[in-house]
Write a structure and sequence with these properties.
Blueprint lengths: L10 H20 L13 H12 L9 H4 L2 H16 L1 H11 L6 H10 L8 H31 L2 H14 L19 H16 L1 H13 L13 H25 L11 H14 L15 H13 L12 H15 L6 E2 L2 E2 L2 H28 L4 H12 L14 H16 L1 H8 L20
Antiparallel strand pairs: 1-2
Helix pairs in contact: 1-2, 1-4, 1-6, 1-18, 2-4, 2-17, 4-8, 5-7, 7-8, 7-9, 8-9, 9-12, 10-11, 11-12, 11-13, 13-16, 14-15, 15-16, 15-17, 16-17
């Protein structure tokens, strides 16, 4: 009797399948007539696109969200955004804790892999803190949004505020306000500040939150040197995030200063706040307060670079991540200076971390390149527009130079696959689809030097 071989999935494969399952279920719900504002079912490919962009917290849409979907459809989209931002593993773990079910070793491994953590201790508390912190921040954001949206939209403004807060914190960039995103509120300081803070908090990552809170609680009122006592991860994430936001804003301010199609005719204060918002939103959020197709080529290039880098690990943002870029740059300079190892903030970066950063960056760039070439081959898009679109999809940003709505069937399928690859993570995808790890050979392969550069 032949015994059937039991199929076992790795934790990474389970995470990939959980996102895929969520997308397929969501697309089925969005393809129902009840999900459409007109009462007629939208084409399945557009429903699949919307489910993918929501679950992958990207924000690219083929149909206007505000006018296409009914309240039921918008609720489905919001749930997909929340699940995509937190991760299905986090949601399921939270439900287990709510039902007082104990987490087994398999559940802990899933959580550890989903958040890329190095320890399995305190995971139940970590999940509770993630869920509690997320809902508190989203709740405060919704209340602040209501100060603008309730006077303008009445009772409907409450729903708009909740939707926008969840979308901003999850770095989704999807809204139900207007077809031109937040362009009507480009010079509204409250909308700019609330949206930017939600994006940054979601993009910094949960680990940084708890680290800052830990240090603040442990410091005496007279000794508030918080940054010095943070972990290396938090120091890198905060420093790179801050630097990118301000450098990006300065460059966009300079390149767009005289552009009448964007900020050229605004007051100095408005030019500053719009430039800051553009710099923040390109870090995987996807809300737009100025039409992206009207940006100068220089500003569009800066935006592409910011999208590529993205947010920080263990958060709701996408991209190659701030820590990855910091490690790569630091390692490159260490090699140029003929140092044995790279160091940041007085700490040595392990060789394994450098290798992982290289793998993530190379895989990420390969996906972007392949998607760009395929999109240019199947559409009439210019090189800049195609690269902007595919980088936005891979980095789960959601900004577009007015290309998404014009995509043909092949273009939509390319972006759907690209968004999925970008959300689940290039390195996770490689591990999940690859074969089992090879056992270490007793005798390793011979070494031979090659020329580089």
């Amino acid at each position: 009797m032949v015994r059937k071989k039991k199929i076992t999935l790795s934790t990474t494969q389970i995470i990939l399948l959980s996102f895929l399952t969520t997308i397929l279920v969501g697309s089925g719900l969005l393809a129902l007539p009840i999900s459409s504002a007109s009462g007629e079912a939208v084409p399945y490919l557009d429903a699949l696109f919307m489910a993918t962009t929501s679950t992958c917290v990207t924000g690219l849409v083929t149909l206007p969200t505000v006018s296409t979907w009914s309240v039921f459809g918008q609720v489905v989209i919001l749930l997909l955004i929340q699940i995509g931002g937190l991760g299905i593993i986090t949601i399921m773990s939270g439900l287990m804790l709510l039902l007082n079910r104990k987490m087994g070793i398999g559940d802990r491994l899933l959580i550890q892999d989903a958040f890329n953590l190095y320890t399995m201790s305190g995971l139940a508390k970590f999940i509770k803190n993630v869920l509690f912190g997320t809902f508190i921040i989203e709740g405060v954001g919704a209340v602040l949004y209501m100060l603008v949206f309730v006077p303008e939209f009445g009772a409907k403004g409450i729903w708009i505020s909740v939707f926008n807060s969840v979308s901003a914190f999850c770095n989704a960039g999807i809204d139900i306000i207007a077809e031109n995103s937040l362009c009507n509120y480009a010079t509204n300081p409250l909308i700019n500040i609330v949206t930017s803070v939600l994006i940054i908090l979601g993009g910094l990552g949960y680990v940084v939150w708890w680290d800052v809170i830990r240090v603040v609680k442990s410091r005496s009122p007279k000794n508030r040197k918080i940054f010095r006592h943070l972990t290396l991860h938090s120091k890198i994430a905060i420093t790179v995030t801050t630097g990118l936001i301000f450098v990006g804003a300065i460059l966009i301010f300079i390149f767009e200063y005289a552009n009448p199609l964007t900020i050229g005719e605004m007051t100095l204060f408005d030019k500053i706040q719009v430039s800051l918002f553009q710099s923040v939103t390109t870090r995987t959020a996807g809300f737009a307060t100025i039409p992206q197709e009207n940006l100068t080529n220089a500003s569009a290039t800066v935006s592409i670079i910011l999208m590529l880098i993205g947010g920080s690990p263990v958060g709701t943002a996408g991209g190659m991540k701030t820590v990855t870029i910091a490690v790569l740059i630091c390692s490159a300079f260490a090699t140029i200076r003929n140092k044995n190892s790279a160091t940041l903030f007085g700490r040595r970066i392990s060789e394994g971390t450098v290798k992982k950063a290289v793998a993530v960056a190379v895989t990420f760039l390969m996906i972007c390149t392949a998607s760009s070439v395929l999109l240019m081959a199947t559409s009439n898009a210019s090189a800049l527009d195609a690269v902007y679109e595919t980088v936005s999809a891979t980095a789960t940003v959601g900004l577009s130079r007015n290309l998404t709505s014009t995509l043909n069937t092949f273009g939509k399928l390319i972006i759907i696959v690209t968004m999925y690859f970008g959300r689940v993570g290039p390195i996770s995808l490689a591990v999940a689809l690859g074969s089992k790890n090879e056992s270490q050979n007793v005798i390793s392969e011979p070494t031979e030097d090659i020329s580089i550069g």
